[in-house]
Write a structure and sequence with these properties.
The complex is a heterotrimer of chains A (318), B (327) and C (293).
Chain A lengths: L1 E14 L2 E14 L3 E5 L6 H8 L7 E9 L2 E2 L5 H7 L4 E4 L13 H12 L5 H14 L16 H13 L5 E5 L7 H17 L3 E6 L2 H7 L2 E6 L2 E7 H6 L4 H8 L39 H5 L4 E4 L2 E4 L7
Parallel strand pairs in A: 3-8, 3-9, 6-7, 7-8
Antiparallel strand pairs in A: 1-2, 1-4, 4-5, 9-10, 10-12, 11-12
Helix pairs in contact in A: 3-4, 4-5, 5-6
Chain B lengths: L4 E14 L3 H7 L3 E14 L3 E5 L6 H8 L7 E6 L2 E2 L5 H7 L3 E4 L13 H11 L5 H14 L5 H5 L8 H13 L5 E5 L7 H17 L3 E6 L2 H7 L2 E6 L2 E7 H6 L4 H9 L39 H5 L5 E3 L2 E3 L5
Parallel strand pairs in B: 3-8, 3-9, 6-7, 7-8
Antiparallel strand pairs in B: 1-2, 1-4, 4-5, 9-10, 10-12, 11-12
Helix pairs in contact in B: 4-5, 4-7, 7-8
Chain C lengths: L1 H20 L2 H21 L1 H4 L30 H37 L1 H16 L2 H12 L3 H27 L3 H8 L4 H37 L11 H9 L8 H28 L8
Helix pairs in contact in C: 1-2, 2-4, 2-11, 4-7, 4-9, 4-11, 5-7, 6-7, 7-9, 8-9, 9-10, 9-11, 10-11
Chain lengths: 318, 327, 293
Amino acid sequence: MELLNIRNLSIEYKTKSGTVKAVEDVTFEVGEHESLGVVGESGCGKSTLGVAILRLLPPNATTKGEIIFNGKNLLSLTNEEMRRMRGKEIAMIFQDPMTSLNPIMRVRDHFFELFKVHEPSMKKEQMIKLASEALESVGTDPKRLDNYPFEFSGGMRQRVMIAIAIALKPKLLIADEPTTALDVVVQEQIMQVLKNLMKTKNMSLILITHDMGIVSELAEKVTVMYAGNLVEHGEIKEIYNEPKHPYTKMLLESIPNIKLDDMELKYIPGSPPDLKNPPKGCKYYPRCPYTKEICKTKEPKTVKLGDRKVKCHLYSGG
Amino acid sequence: MSSEVFLRVDRLKKEFSLKVAWLEAIFKGKKRIVKAVDDVSFYIKKGETLGIVGESGSGKTTLGRTVIRLVEPTSGKIIMDGMELTQLKGETLRRERRNFSIIFQDPMASLNPYMRVGKIVSHPLEIHNIGTKQERKEKILWLFEKFNLTPADEFYNRFPKHLSGGQRQRVVIARALITNPKFIVADEPTAMLDVSVRSQILKLMIEIKYEFKLTYLFITHDLASAKYICDRIGVMYLGKIVEIANKEDIFKEPLHPYTKILMSSIPIPDPNIKREKLIPKGEIPSATNIPTGCRFHTRCPFAKSICREKEPELKDVGGRLVACHIV
Amino acid sequence: MVENSNQMLSSRLSSFIREMLGDSSGIMALAGLTILIIFILMALFAPIIAPYSPVQPSGNPLSPPSWHHIMGTDNMGYDVFSRFIYGSRMALTIASVATLIAAGIGIPLGLVVGYFGGAVDRVITMIMDSVYTFPGLILAIAIAAVLGPGIINISLSIAVVYIPTYYRVIRSQVASVKNELYVESAYSIGAKTSTIIFKYILPNVLPSIIVVLSMNIADAIMTEAGLSFLGLGITPPTPDWGYDLANGQQFLISNDWWMAFFPGVAIILIVLGFSMFAEGLNEYFNPNIGEKR
């Protein structure tokens, strides 16, 4: 059974200057013990997607569709039921480890806070034991439970954030750009931590990032988002070896590599559309080299090609 | 590329003294010194691009700023195009600034939010009294066309907040280029941009390098971007250059353990490749407290006892310079 | 060319008004502005609006409000309404002159000291802080007592009180703005220090000045009224709300309330106007203050 089923999810923000269609009719699933990468340029709706699963969107957002987690539709839960989900069943880590921790609370108190919310009857010894285990599993000395956040470097803080997130053994971890604020070397260390966690804990991962490199090292499946739409979804190897959607293809080509015999700098011309006023038809057509007449007028349907989903007229027979 | 040396930096040092609480000052009796750039020497040939690669905290940003005297060096010499930059003062230095410029990492923060884009780019010309008002405007519009900031006359009157990240960085590059300088320091010019825009900016920088016969000092933490634009690469760690060599040598066979680690940390977007990764211990130490001996030994997977005791000098290894006891 | 710039100004103005009306802070600023405009018009057209001369008896002393004297007359037989109207001139003149002097000294000082920092900074900041900690009205009284009455003297004694306000706001703003990357960029293209200060730093600290400015005028009006109330202000019978208030309160005991009531209302209204305007502007320029999250 799938752990998470997202069905026809649409999210709109009402703003002064118009309605922003941040996510449009997105459907995908995440299996148990599976890791999924969500990639796209900034402003493609990938972060909104992550926050929406936890139902932490700002009040001006309206959500349509279904988010079925472990058989329950999260969108129909009461606020109280949803609150009990967060941190226990589904946990999230963010880009900036500097601002995600309360500077006047010791690391142990961050753990205790979480435990008290979800397991009020837990004894102190038990809490310390769980917190120590969590810290060890991210490669941090449990002695540092008594330290304050400022005593940690950026990479160490992100480790602590991950430890707090996994302390209650959630079934799903959502990581929104977990390494973007970090240096390459530290990024590599954090990726190792996540890799180890995937191996040892029974947990699924949604990794939201703009970096295809990170996705291909960590994820088994990948969802490519463009202008709020899911444009391609499938196994990472298949997508890498044979990208179907022109956007996926160009995104892959535009990543700088370290092969000395490949010196050509490729990029996607133009920029993503304004989501208040997106182009008609396929949202990608203004930047796409394969644009046909139909792309400008008709929105493509999502088609299944084996295990893969693609939203493009090249494959929908149109 | 000629073999003429354009810029020579000789034993450059930059130390900052940190403010210390008075209690600490009394009890410990000394100021805390940050050695951001610690005895760095290198040269750049005319028309060449030297990359400086390192983590944050390696001192690479301070190095870039010190080279063009945005930050006063503590000691050392900077000789640019035959002129000793470190000797210049006040008004002479100010006038000389038309010949070199800098591109910062954050394009929004480097543009005055209350100035129109046209004015931002024409300001260097006004400051140095270059051209008439009409000539300035023509040159800027021409540059905007070239930089794909079109319609150019519309961009001329916009404010920075109405531009996208990539457009802002192109404005910053236009400002850096408008006085026809010979040398540009680029301090992580693509780090804050989206992946797809990153390549556009890199490509633009490569194009103008040839067209305007520029020499670059390209500072980055990203070896992958450095590959496209640099001719030689210096790897910096805690204020020192630990390896400096041709790009090809660095990529084919990194010698210093730190360079090896940097190379293996670059995520490769190819799920078919499974690499053996080289992961260092811990994180970069504070520059107030530089380890004795080789400053990398605390994290080095190959450290031996000599590394803790003696600081390695840069030595010639087959035409390239490496500071490591093991190599 | 002229037409073009006019067009730009009017279109900018209308978009400004549209933005101001967009949320509650805009309404507050607009309400404040309306009060202010009424008072300014009153001051400008005082001779047309006022039914009588403010410095000549126009009826029986101490007559209550009636159709002839809608705010009654005072103990000298002067029309209270006419003095109400003319009083706005004094209040606005002194408050604006005082504020201009304070801003004219405080802003450049804050700019230069904030930019250069160092030992001069420490000395001047210490002086400014000691003036700032001194109770404003008492300081103004002391200076006014030394200088004697007169518009310029009163303005000066009020100005001294407010110089530190500008100095402190500007200096702290400059100290943070000067570390911005665009200032370093200006330095890197070879801009002169004066260019950096006036073209790169000043425009970026200006919005906070405008807010302080309008808040300060409100304060200055209060101080001016206070000085006149204590007899250190303008020589009677020049119409002045503070003086009228002081004069009128003696007669409260005999139930002749109108003499103190109307100047009091005038002071409250104009101060309220400036404060609302300032508060609204503040939220307009720093929209994050009121925001939760």
